[in-house]
Design goal:
66% helix; mainly alpha; 3 strands; 18 helices; 3-stranded antiparallel beta sheet; 448 residues
Length: 448
């Protein structure tokens, strides 16, 4: 009996030397935990996807006005289609989570080439589907894909890989190395999108460009010039078509054009105003019955305001704010320049797209027809969003604290069951490549 206290003391000493996995240290904040970025990212994304599913179900109810047999069969068509794309998007999300940062760099050029080829193919009669005078989709039997959404991912990965390589070589000190071939490449892809035509999607490419240049640390004087050039290009594109310019000018006084070009903005404002603080109830809104155009895609935020009220709108905005904070947190905590550029530009792209959508629904910006990420109905957009979300989760798993924690867990055999079941590989620490000199400098030194 006398040996029991000594044995208990020895076991307590051994236990104290083992790493802690589930118990946080005294005074440790949630954001200081190794997997905090992963958890915050999933909380914001899952919350937004829940809103997307709810709004998909709610806006489908508007088809109930047709009580015939055809209407009864088509009432849940949108929900079924949304479910199909979610079922396809989940494996894409899992694939991106399992992929290391180097894998995304290897996929940059294949995705970009595939996006450019599909953008060219959509302009060919017989391949691209024309709707309201625009060719933006390719018919693949039961599904229709929009190539410009996949091209966004390709441009994002290609631009981040290009700037990361130049940063490694130390050639970003000159403006021409910063802008070439980045600006011509993105401009070429944006020109293909404008041939469809699709000004709203072109704005997303410009958001990716600004996000990359901002994350790479471009001097402020150059950044101001680029922003002014982007604003001038958007103005010229708007002037090229009269209906675009009318949309830009009518948002200042939408009620003066309530029956013509200001109809969308006016009906969106009416829908938001009728919701009040708590809304009229999920599925109880009336604006989606032919009043608000594109209630399930472009103006889904107006339906959220009507049915869930100001409270629902605030929750959606808070989730986007959390997503933006987490994306920039991943970029700030990463030592890999490619991860830093990609995560920052992806956050600027998705959150900037959300700001534009909410802006024109509330009457603060001109109507551009950009969908609300995670929430608006749109199959190809959802697939691209699933891939970007999985990529950000993969980057969050490769943060230094998360890598240390995962390797400790693997060493002591305490990996989570879900990681073992999904066979998610243990993240590897980032090893910076050896700094290489540009080819011109290397040749000059060898000649000497």
């Amino acid at each position: 009996m006398s040996a029991l206290p000594a044995l208990a003391e020895r076991a307590s000493a051994v236990r104290s030397r083992l790493p802690r996995f589930s118990r946080p240290a005294p005074g440790e904040r949630f954001v200081d935990k190794p997997y905090a970025s992963v958890q915050l990212l999933l909380i914001s994304a899952v919350g937004l996807l829940v809103f997307g599913v709810l709004m998909s179900v709610s806006t489908t109810i508007s088809a109930a006005s047709d009580t015939s047999g055809a209407g009864a069969t088509s009432i849940w068509a949108q929900v079924v289609k949304e479910g199909i794309f979610v079922a396809i998007g989940l494996p894409i999300f899992w694939f991106a989570v399992c992929l290391p940062p180097r894998g995304f760099r290897l996929l940059a050029y294949p995705i970009l080439i595939l996006g450019i080829v599909s953008l060219m193919a959509v302009l060919v009669p017989g391949i691209g589907i024309g709707v309201y005078g625009a060719r933006r989709w390719i018919d693949l039997g039961p599904l229709q894909i929009q190539p410009s959404e996949f091209a966004k991912v390709g441009v994002l990965l290609w631009g981040a890989d290009l700037l990361a390589r130049k940063q490694q070589l130390g050639t970003l000190r000159r403006a021409r190395h910063l802008f070439i071939p980045l600006l011509p490449g993105i401009g070429f892809v944006a020109a293909l999108v404008m041939l469809e035509p699709d000004l709203g999607t072109t704005l997303c490419y410009l958001l990716i460009l600004l996000g990359l240049l901002w994350m790479v640390g471009m001097p402020m004087r150059y950044f101001v010039v680029v922003v002014c050039a982007v604003a001038g290009a958007v103005t010229l594109l708007a002037l090229a078509a009269p209906y675009r310019w009318q949309r830009i000018t009518s948002f200042l006084h939408p009620f003066a054009h309530a029956k013509t070009v200001g109809y969308h903005a006016v009906e969106g404002i009416y829908a938001l105003a009728s919701g009040g603080i708590f809304g009229v109830g999920l599925g109880q809104g009336t604006s989606k019955y032919g009043w608000v155009p594109n209630a399930n895609s472009d103006y889904v935020f107006a339906i959220i305001g009507e049915e869930l009220g100001l409270l629902g709108c605030v929750v959606v905005l808070a989730l986007f704010a959390l997503f933006a904070y987490t994306g920039l947190r991943i970029a700030r905590r990463s030592a890999d320049p490619f991860v830093r550029l990609t995560s920052g530009a992806a956050t600027v792209w998705l959150c900037g797209q959300a700001v534009i959508n909410v802006g024109y629904v509330t009457g603060l910006l001109p109507v551009t027809g950009i969908p609300l990420p995670f929430i608006s109905a749109g199959g190809t957009s959802m697939l691209a969003t699933f891939f970007v979300l999985g990529m950000l989760v993969s980057f969050a798993r490769h943060e230094a604290p998360a890598v240390v924690q995962a390797r400790r867990a693997e060493r002591f055999g305490r990996r989570a069951r879900i990681e073992r079941w999904l066979r998610i590989p243990v993240p590897k620490p980032y090893v910076p490549p050896k700094r290489r000199q540009p080819a011109r400098v290397t040749a000059l030194r060898s000649s000497r």
